[in-house]
C-alpha cells in the first residue's frame, strides 16, 4: 500500500530544524526519502525556485541503479560514497563544487552515463577511472573551464 504525502504535512516537515529532519530521514528507505524530497519540492511553491539540501543518506544507497537529481544542493559526503550499482547519474540545476562531484563519481565503478545540465559551481571537472562510461553529456555549463577525462574510460 503506497501512501501519498500530504502537501500540508510536507510543509510542516520542511519547517523542522535540519538535525531533526536528518534524524527522521534516517529511518526511511531511500525511495521514501526521494518521494518526500520530491513532494516537498513540488507540493509547495516555495521549493520550486530554490535549492534543497540533499540528505547525506542518499550517498550510501548501494542498490540504486539510477540517480536523477533536480534543483538540489549537494554537499561533500561525510564518508566514501557507495553507489556500487549506479549506472546512470543525471544532474539538472544542481549546485555542487568540483570536489563533491569527484567524490560522488569515485564510488560509481559501474557508471555508464553521466548527464550534467545547467549545474552551478563546477569549474574543473575530472572523470577518471570510469572504465564503463559510455556516454557523457554536459549542457549549459558556462562556469566550466576544464574537463579532464581518462582516455581508458
TrEMBL record:
Residues 44-128 form the F-box/LRR-repeat protein 15/At3g58940/PEG3-like LRR domain. InterPro entries: At1g61320/At1g61330-like, F-box-like_dom_sf, LRR_FXL15/At3g58940/PEG3-like. It comes from Citrus unshiu (Satsuma mandarin). It comes from the Eukaryota. This is F-box/LRR-repeat protein 15/At3g58940/PEG3-like LRR domain-containing protein. SUPFAM superfamilies: F-box domain (SSF81383).
Amino acid at each position: 500500500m503506497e501512501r501519498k504525502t500530504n502537501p500540508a504535512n510536507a510543509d510542516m516537515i520542511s519547517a523542522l530544524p535540519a538535525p531533526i529532519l536528518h534524524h527522521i530521514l534516517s529511518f526511511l528507505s531511500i525511495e521514501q526519502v526521494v518521494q518526500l524530497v520530491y513532494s516537498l519540492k513540488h507540493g509547495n511553491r516555495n521549493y520550486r525556485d530554490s535549492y534543497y539540501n540533499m540528505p547525506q543518506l542518499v550517498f550510501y544507497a548501494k542498490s540504486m541503479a539510477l540517480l536523477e537529481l533536480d534543483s538540489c544542493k549537494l554537499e561533500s559526503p561525510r564518508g566514501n560514497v557507495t553507489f556500487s550499482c549506479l549506472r546512470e547519474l543525471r544532474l539538472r540545476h544542481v549546485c555542487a563544487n568540483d570536489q563533491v562531484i569527484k567524490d560522488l563519481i569515485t564510488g560509481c565503478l559501474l557508471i555508464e552515463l553521466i548527464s550534467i545540465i545547467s549545474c552551478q559551481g563546477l569549474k574543473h571537472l575530472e572523470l577518471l577511472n570510469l572504465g564503463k562510461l559510455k556516454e557523457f553529456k554536459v549542457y549549459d555549463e558556462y562556469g566550466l573551464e576544464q574537463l579532464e577525462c581518462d582516455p581508458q574510460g
